[in-house]
UniProtKB/TrEMBL annotation:
It is found in: Cell membrane. It comes from freshwater metagenome. PROSITE patterns: SSD. This is Unannotated protein. Keywords: Cell membrane, Membrane, Transmembrane, Transmembrane helix. It is a multi-pass membrane protein. Residues 238-345, 554-682 form the SSD domain. Coiled coil: none annotated. The chain crosses the membrane at residues 183-204, 211-230, 250-270, 291-312, 324-347, 381-401, 526-544, 551-577, 583-603, 624-649, 655-683. Belongs to the resistance-nodulation-cell division (RND) (TC 2.A.6) family. MmpL subfamily.
Length: 699
């Protein structure tokens, strides 16, 4: 360790370190760069999931090898006869079909044929007369750009010659796929730009130097660029899955947030060492050796916590885990290798106008945080009770929390497909727009249909297409799509139809898919959250060589998580008017808050352990709080602001995660690390480090 630190910070070898870093940059943006991907988020259900098996079976049925666009014409009032005629066209007795209507606009796009000619099924007018639907079968297109261009053309054509008083939206599977891909177009650049601006401003405010802030910003910014090129390839290499836009968005936030936190810790320690060490290279050497254990433990905790997602069932969770863990490792490399070399080559003048001079006074020893530490040490029990009381009150806000958003509620600003789906849901009977799809072995279709009709909540059963082995059955439910009532019917269908021996009945469809995603998220939470807690505890035990301290630190972080959830839920309901949390929010918020929240405890307690060896337990904690108080507060505010930037992304899940983690990080920074952890340390005294006996209070 000493040899590596000496090489990184040496007079000549620091330049060599920067050269090595430059080589890695060239490789990352050159031969190792990732191919461009416009992949949209998917549910990531496992291959043996019932809905996935249904979708795979449907590929073998006639007319199901493509996709569908649903064109919705609607009006605020009942459609007039003229408007209906324009949409539906007139019935031709010769061809026994409708012609001359809006459906003819899509003959150049449809994949269906009738009597050897392109065919679009006739429009269907809703019972309330306010909407009409045209279903257009389409061929699948793999290229995202071509798919988007086709949809743009169809949406333009749909409006041509449209009578006044009606509007049109194209939704359905194809509409959603294109719109989800479209909302991420350019979003990551906006996210990166907003992140850079926030980090730059906060670094400038923190250092009050016109130059110093540029060095960590450039180093971490380049690390983020490298991570965006290399980390997503880990998912392709090990999981065979391409990372989507939501994963790469979170990757940028965490690399910038964590990397800047590590940079703040290193620079603060370097500034301290410059006051007592004349040679800046030796000062950086001491600083680097001092912060390396904390940064490695901190980054290692985050990376390992993310890798627990590899035990999840949902593919999206596994992808996020491995990709972002790779990004955190690159952030640690940048902070521990490239940044020390980049800073030390510039000399003390980099801190201008507040240059730390050799022999100068360390003002932190008698500053705000030192005074706060001494105050907490006098009444630790009262302070601890008050701190936990605040966390408890905030936690009560989570009572009545709801989880689960429909497909149309998952966007901050609803795209056209979501608007069209809402219109369909209002205009057509509940369940009519998204029937359950049942696949059965041939010969059992009548029996299965009869059993399905007897399930409470089933409105209609329609036997559909078949091939040599299986038959498709549509089951219309008398319940709103993606509601708890619909989920109950799906469960009952699976139970009743699954008991028919030899039928091989499988139940899928949109509601079944959403139910499976919901249940799989719940399963992933039960599997992953205990692993996160165990891993964090083990890292703390190895780092601190203690059993009491890790338990107390983990307790405070978990308490701050539930407080953050409670406070955020109050904001979501009373200010933002959000109906529920997205399915992914609880798991990801817990992961990020526990893994990142423990960082600040690690920064504080590792310094306290170092100082306790010289000053004793009480004075060591006060010294640690005085030395790290400013930098940890700056780091927490910066990380909270960076997570808030997730709000520029289109998915409501990321927006919610950003707010929850932002609130949680501020609680960890300003309450937990500031008063609760020191008060617990003062209460337990030397037993804080049990079973170690070398930290007895010397005072």
């Amino acid at each position: 360790m000493n040899a590596i630190a000496s090489f990184i910070t040496g007079r000549k070898t620091s330049w060599v370190t920067l050269l090595i870093g430059l080589v890695f940059v060239i490789l990352a943006f050159g031969p190792l760069s990732a191919p461009k991907s416009d992949t949209a988020p998917t549910d990531g259900l496992p291959a043996n999931n019932e809905t996935v098996l249904v979708n795979k079976a449907l590929e073998g049925l006639p007319g199901t090898d493509g996709t569908v666009a649903v064109v919705v014409y609607s009006s605020d009032s009942v459609l007039t006869d003229e408007q209906k005629l324009w949409i539906t066209g007139s019935f031709d007795p010769m061809t026994q079909s409708f012609s001359g209507g809006a459906g003819d606009k899509f003959l150049d796009y449809t994949s269906a044929e009738f009597n050897g000619a392109a065919f679009v099924p006739p429009a269907e007018v809703s019972e309330n007369g306010k909407a009409a639907v045209i279903t257009v079968p389409l061929d699948e297109i793999d290229e995202v750009a071509e798919r988007a261009e086709r949809m743009a053309d169809m949406r333009a054509v749909a409006k041509e010659g449209m009578p006044a008083g009606i509007e049109v939206h194209i939704t359905g599977p194809e509409g959603f796929i294109v719109d989800i891909s479209g909302v991420f177009a350019g979003a990551n650049f906006t996210l990166l730009l907003a992140t850079v601006i926030i980090v730059a401003v906060l670094l400038l405010v923190t250092y009050r130097s016109p130059v110093l802030w540029l060095v960590p910003l450039i180093v971490i910014g380049v690390a983020d660029g490298m991570a965006s090129q290399i980390a997503p390839q880990l998912s392709t290499l090990f999981l065979g899955v391409v990372a989507d836009g939501s994963v790469t968005g979170i990757l940028s936030v965490l690399v910038f947030g964590a990397g800047t936190n590590y940079a703040l810790l290193l620079i603060a320690r370097y500034r301290e060492e410059l006051l007592v060490t004349e040679d800046r290279h030796q000062a950086m050497n001491k600083a680097l050796r001092g912060v390396t254990p904390a940064i490695l433990a901190s980054g290692g905790t985050v990376a390992l916590a993310l890798l627990t997602l590899l035990f999840a069932e949902l593919g999206g969770n596994r992808t996020l885990g491995i990709v972002v863990a790779g990004g955190i490792v690159m952030a640690m490399f940048a902070a521990l290798v490239v940044l020390p070399a980049a800073i030390v080559v510039f000399g003390r003048g980099l801190f201008w106008p507040f240059i730390p001079k050799f022999g100068g006074v360390n003002k932190s020893d008698n500053g705000l945080w030192a005074r706060l530490g001494r105050g907490v040490s006098k009444r630790p029990v009262i302070v601890s009770i008050a701190g936990f009381a605040i966390l408890a009150v905030l936690s009560f806000g989570a009572s009545g929390i709801k989880v689960g958003l429909s497909s149309t509620e998952q966007f901050r600003v609803a795209p056209e497909a979501a608007i069209g789906q809402d219109i369909l849901a209002e205009a057509f009977p509940a369940g009519a727009t998204s029937p359950a799809i049942v696949i059965v072995n041939n010969g059992f279709e009548e029996e299965v249909a009869a059993v399905a009709e007897g399930v409470p909540g089933v409105a209609e059963v329609i036997i559909g297409d078949s091939n040599a082995t299986i038959t498709k059955i549509d089951v219309v439910m008398d319940a709103e799509s993606q509601s708890e009532a619909a989920y109950t019917i799906i469960k009952e269908l699976r139970s009743e139809l699954g008991s028919i021996e030899g039928a091989g009945a499988l139940v899928g469809g949109l509601d079944a898919q959403r139910l499976d995603v919901k249940e799989t998220y719940a399963s992933d939470q039960l599997r992953v959250i205990p692993l996160i807690l165990i891993l964090v505890f083990l890292v703390l035990v190895l780092l601190l060589r203690s059993l009491v301290a890790p338990i107390l630190l983990l307790l405070t972080v978990v308490a701050s998580f539930f407080s953050a959830i409670g406070a955020a839920w109050l904001v979501f309901v009373n200010i933002l008017g959000l109906p529920a949390l997205d399915l992914s929010v609880f798991l990801f918020s817990f992961l990020f808050l526990v893994a990142l929240g423990i960082d600040y405890n690690i920064f504080l307690v590792t310094r306290a352990k170092e100082e306790a060896e010289k000053l004793g337990m009480k004075e060591g904690m006060i010294k640690a709080l005085a030395s790290t108080g400013g930098v940890i507060t700056s780091a927490g505010i910066l990380l909270a602001a960076v997570f808030a930037v997730l709000g520029v992304l289109p998915l409501l899940a990321l927006y919610q995660i950003g707010i929850i983690v932002g609130i949680g990080v501020l609680l960890d920074t300003l309450l937990v690390r500031t008063v609760i952890v020191p008060s617990l340390a003062f209460i337990t005294g030397k037993y804080f480090w049990w079973p170690s006996k070398k930290f007895a209070d010397k005072n």
